[in-house]
Amino acid sequence: MTATTIHPLCAGMRMLRRPLLSLLCVGLVAPNPQVEPPSTGLLNSTRAVAINSRTGKAYAVDSARNAVEIFDPATRRTGRVAVGKAPVAIAVNEPTNTIYVANSGGDTVSVIDGETDQVAKDIKVGPLPYVVAANPASNTIYVSNTFSSVITVIDARTHLTTTARAGSADAIAVDRTLDRIYLLHYEDTRLTALDHSARVVGNVETGIHLWGIAVDESRHKLYATRSGSGELLLFDEGSAQATTVPVGAMPCAVAVNEATEKVYVANHDDDTVTVIEAAKGGRVAATLGVGRRPQALAVDPKRNLVYVANTHGDSVTVIDGAQDRVRETIKTGKNPYALAVNPASGQLYVAVDSEKALEVIDRPGDSR
After folding, report:
1. Helix/strand/coil for 21
2. What residues have CB less than 8 Å from 294, skipping those under 6 apart?
3. pTM of the prediction?
4. Residue 214 and residue 255 in contact, taking contact as beta carbons nearer than 8 Å
5. pLDDT (tens digit per residue) in 300-352
C-alpha cells in the first residue's frame, strides 16, 4: 500500500493529493513518522462500483473517459453514460432510484436516473469532490471534498444542498439504523460521528492511520483498519468501547458478513486476508494467502463467499466463508481494484483498469 503505484483512476487529482499527505505524515505525525500514507489509488476500493438493489443494475466509474459504465442483468447489456470530469466514487439511493457520482476533476456530483440511465442533474458541491455516501433511511447524500473540512449534504428528494463544517473524510460509513454517519480521515486520531443532518454528535478516539471502514448495522459495530500499525479497530456503537486486533501488513480494506459475524481484512503488503470472529471477541480464525496486493473485498452472505481483488495479480480470489479456505482464483482484466456482489443472483462485479471498466463474473465460486 505504501509503495504501490497510484492507480490511473483520477491520477491528476490523486497526484496532487499524495504529496500533501506524505508531507503531513512526515512533518506532523510525531508518534509514527516513518509510516507513509497508502497510495491514494486504494482510496476508492469500496466506492468505485455499486449495485442498485432496486433494479439489480451495477455501476462502475470510468475515470479516464469521464463516464460511468452500467450493467443491466435483465438484458445482460452494458451501457455508458457521460458524467463530470474524473469520476471516482458512486453511491446509490434506492428509495429515489438515483445514483450519485463524485466527479473529482471538477466541482459536481452527477445524478443518474436509475430508470433511464441518464444524467438528470449535476449538483455543485465545491472543488474536488472525493467521497460520496448515501443514507437511504433519510434520503440523504453526503459528499466530502479533498483539502476541505466541509461536508455537503444533498436531499435526495429535492436535490437541495446544505453544508456543514464537520471535518475532512477519506471515507464515509453509514449506520442507517442508528442515524449515524462516520467520517474517517487518515491523519486524524478520531472518527467523527454525525447525525443525518451532518451535525457532529461525537468523536471516537481511534489512533492514527485509519484507512478502510465497514459497519455491521445489525449489531451496531464498526470496523476500521489501522494501516500504519497493522491492526483492526473494533468499535461497539452502543457501549462506545473500542479494542484492536493485530492483522497483517498494511491492512487496506475490511468487510463484514453480518450473517456469520466474521470480519475480513485485506492486508495489502503481505498478500493475505485475515479472518476474524467478532462474536468471539475478535479472535483471529485464519490468515489466508491470496494474490498479489489485495486491495478490495466483497461479501456474499447468502452463499457465504468472500471475494478479494488482487490488484497486482490481475485476479480475484474466492474464499469459502464456512471453511475459512481459498476455494479458487479467477483471472480478471488489468488491476482489479473494486468489487461488488449482487446477493440475489451471486453475480460479481469487478472494476478494472482497461477499456472496459466493468467486468461481470457469473456465480464465481460455484466450482469446487
Report:
1. helix
2. 252, 253, 266, 267, 268, 271, 272, 273, 308, 309, 310, 311, 317
3. 0.87
4. yes
5. 999 999 999 999 999 999 999 999 999 999 999 999 999 999 989 999 999 99
pLDDT at 365: 64
**130 lies in which domain range?**
43-165
What distance in Å separates the CA atoms of residue 299 and residue 306, rounded to the nearest whole number? Answer: 5
The set of cell numbers assigned to 343 is 446477493
Indicate the number of domains in the chain.
Answer: 1
Tell me how far apart the alpha carbons of residues 199 and 181 are, in angstroms, rounded to a whole number. 10
Euclidean distance between the first and final Cα of the chain, in Å?
A: 32
64 secondary structure, DSSP code: G
Kindly state whether residue 123 falls inside one of the protein's structural domains. Answer: yes
* CATH at 70: 2.130.10.10
* Cross-strand pairs, 58: 51, 71
Asked if the structure places residue 148 within a domain, the reply is yes
Question: Does a structural domain hold residue 228?
Answer: no
Query: How long, in residues, is the chain?
Result: 368
Q: How many CB atoms lie within 10 A of CB 254?
A: 24
324 domain-assigned: no
| Cα gap 368→366, rounded to integer Å | 6
Residues 284-302: tens digit of each pLDDT? 999 999 999 999 999 999 9
Single-letter code of the amino acid located at 111: V
Ordered DSSP codes for 182-235: EEE-TT-SEEEEE-TT--EEEEEE--S-EEEEEEETTTTEEEEEETTTTEEEEE
**Are 212 and 228 contacting, i.e. CB atoms less than 8 angstroms apart?**
no
* Nearest Cα residue to 284 out of 254, 247, 259: 247
pLDDT digits (tens, 9 = 90+) for 239-249: 888 999 999 99
∠ CA 29-32-35, nearest 5°, is 95
d(CA 288, CA 318): 11
DSSP state of 293: S
- Backbone phi, psi, residue 15, to 5°: -65, -30
Integer CA distances (angstroms), 29 to 17, 37, 88, in order: 17, 11, 28
The CA distance from 316 to 365, in Å, is 10
| Nearest C-alpha neighbor of 227 from the set 253, 204, 205, 203 | 253
Q: Which three cell numbers stand for residue 63?
A: 475515470
